[in-house]
Design a protein that fits this description.
This is Metallophosphoesterase family protein. Pfam families: Metallophos_2. It comes from Undibacterium jejuense. GO terms for molecular function: phosphatase activity. Helix content is about 35%, strand content about 20%. A hairpin with a 2-residue loop joins strand 4 and strand 5. The chain is of the alpha/beta class and about 250 residues long. The longest helix has 13 residues. The mean pLDDT is about 95. It contains eight helices and twelve strands.
């Protein structure tokens, strides 16, 4: 099974389209969307419907904090930009799409893998994995050999030895990384729809369950058009600027 791991799509039609086309070229057989399907971007209905279409064909999908925000009346815990985007987004979605979001799980177990949006210790609390300590906490909170998660918009790979020593690795795109069964792993694929590592190209990863090889990809897309659509929708200009700079 060659599994594509896409997270933090953030209603970016151009980025998702580019990543799906790229994944098809890689002969991906299965898809997992790790949450934050909507929020920030200008095409929430299109992006969510595309994910729903893939789920109908067997893809996996998780609840993210921006997806959950669509369902919440009290958004006091969100910053003003995120709150404005969520409120605008909700008005763009159909009743069927909102019902789809409401049914999303916070975690999925698949073989010896765990899929979550934010972390394994409290998947519905949206705490970030910002470094080695949080990665260690997440890996200790589950039994999975490999945990895949989003929420952090920067591609990162953590590994933990049998003695508990944990390290961090910044992956090189298109370089295959063998995930040894002598270690445990936490994989953050980066963001499809709103990269924040200084590179505006969309980011996702694939994992081959037969060879245990992980590969990160950067996919250029028309971020100028995506940014202009954000401005045309009346959303905060900072959201458009982020797509142009990748920060």
């Amino acid at each position: 099974m060659l599994l594509a791991l896409m997270t933090d799509l953030h209603a970016n039609r151009e980025a998702l389209s580019a990543c799906l086309a790229h994944a098809e070229q890689q002969k991906v057989t299965h898809y997992a969307f790790l949450g934050d399907i909507v929020g920030y971007g200008a095409d929430p209905a299109w992006v969510l419907q595309k994910v729903m279409d893939y789920v109908a064909k067997g893809a996996l999908v998780l609840m993210g904090n921006h997806d959950a925000g669509i369902l919440q009346e009290d958004k006091g815990d969100m910053n003003p930009v995120a709150r404005q985007a969520v409120e605008w987004t909700r008005a763009q979605l159909s009743a069927e799409q909102i019902a789809f979001i409401r049914a999303l799980p916070y975690r999925i177990e698949l073989q010896d893998m765990l899929l979550v949006h934010a972390n394994a210790w409290a998947p519905d609390k949206w705490e970030y994995i910002d470094g080695v300590m949080e990665a260690m906490r997440s890996m200790h909170a589950c039994k999975a050999a490999i945990t895949f998660c989003g929420h952090v918009h920067m591609p990162t790979l953590y590994h933990m030895t049998l003695t508990g020593k944990t390290g961090e690795f910044l992956p090189t795109p298109e370089s295959s990384i063998p995930l040894s069964k002598q270690r445990r792993w936490l994989v953050i694929p980066g963001s499809v729809g709103q990269p924040r590592d200084g590179n505006p190209a969309a980011c996702y990863a694939t994992f081959d369950t037969d060879t245990q090889e992980l590969t990160y990809f950067r996919v250029p897309y028309d971020h100028d058009s995506a940014a202009k659509k954000i401005l045309a929708a009346g959303l905060p200009a900072s959201l458009a600027a982020r797509l142009l700079t990748g920060n």
